[in-house]
Write a structure and sequence with these properties.
By secondary structure, the protein is mainly β. The protein is built from 2 helices and 16 strands. Helix content is about 10%, strand content about 35%. It has helices at about 35-50, 65-80; strands spanning about 5-10, 15-20, 90-95, 100-105, 115-120, 125-130, 145, 155-160, 170-180, 195-200, 205-210, 215, 220-225, 230-245, 250, 260. Strands 11, 12, 13, 14, 15 and 16 form a 6-stranded antiparallel sheet that branches. Strands 6-9-8-7-10 form a 5-stranded antiparallel sheet, with no helix packed on it. The protein folds into 3 domains: about 5-120, Orthogonal Bundle (Muramoyl-pentapeptide Carboxypeptidase, domain 1); about 125-200, Elongation Factor Tu (Ef-tu), domain 3 (Beta Barrel); about 205-260, Beta Barrel (conserved putative lor/sdh protein from methanococcus maripaludis s2 fold), CATH 2.40.420.20.
């Protein structure tokens, strides 16, 4: 993993190209007097790395000041670069967060043209191959429950739902999940997990196991209640939301109350 201030690769007999955090790609050389969003992320990075304090250099400023130059000189000296106090185009790469290198495509001694390396985010994410028929039921922001291989729970949120289905006869779309607490996943990498997505919720609902439902001859469903006296009788129910993860279904109707005993077939 390469974090902010780390060296991504080296060019021209060992000159380092380093990583700084920011969402604006490097597109020009930066020097004293320049203004812009790219300067603001440079100021923020220099403060975050400890080359200046927030009182010495405003991390929210879009102005390349003398303080920016001094802090940049210290970073350059740390990396073995000439202390110019300017940031030439190509000396730094701005990316939103730490990265992990997946593929190195450049060859030692070759010209640094085109793709040099392929990277991914260092943040843990979960990807789901969702049945394309269920695409409309899932949206960004939905709550997700993730069970790791060791049984620990890691809550998350749907961050992206794919729009293009792949897979031929059994098409799927890719759903991306962001973990609420990435550190829970530790060093896990490319492991299978169990995921449940909450697409709807209801408060104060009565729920029974799906296996307790009995199809009625005239249509609809019922559950078989066992009274305190041991009598069995059917209670008609209306179905609501299904909890596929726990095998439950919301039920309502006259004669239903929390605490009633119902018959559930043995598994």
């Amino acid at each position: 993993m390469i974090g902010q201030g780390g060296v991504l690769y080296r060019v021209n007999n060992g000159t380092p190209v380093f990583l700084l955090y920011g969402r604006v790609p490097a597109w020009r050389a930066l020097a004293e007097g320049v203004r812009g969003a790219d300067v603001r992320q440079l100021n923020r990075a220099l403060v975050a790395l400890g080359y200046a304090t927030s009182s010495e250099l405003d991390p929210g400023s879009e102005y390349f000041s003398a303080g920016t130059a001094w802090a940049l000189e210290d970073l350059q000296a740390h990396l073995g670069l000439p202390r110019t106090g300017t940031l030439p185009l190509g000396q730094a790469v701005f990316l939103p967060s730490a990265i992990r290198v997946t593929t190195v495509t450049a060859r030692l001694g070759a010209a640094a043209a085109g793709t040099v390396l392929a990277v991914t985010s260092a943040r843990h994410v979960v990807t789901i191959a969702l049945d394309a028929a269920q695409q409309s039921q899932v949206k960004a922001g939905d709550t997700v429950g993730v069970i790791l291989p060791d049984g620990r729970a890691a809550p998350g949120v749907v961050s992206k739902v794919g729009k293009v289905a792949t897979g031929g006869a059994n098409p799927t779309v890719t759903v991306t999940v962001r973990l609420a607490h990435p550190k829970v996943a530790g060093t896990l990498d490319q492991v299978p997990v169990t995921v449940s997505i909450t697409t709807a919720s209801v408060r104060n609902a009565l729920a029974v196991p799906v296996t307790a439902l009995i199809a009625r001859a005239g249509g609809g469903y019922a559950v078989e209640e066992v009274t305190a006296a041991g009598r069995h009788h059917l209670v008609p129910v209306r179905l609501g939301l299904f909890d596929d993860a726990d095998g439950l279904v919301q039920v309502s109707g006259p004669g239903l109350a929390a605490g009633q005993r119902i018959v559930v077939p043995a598994s």
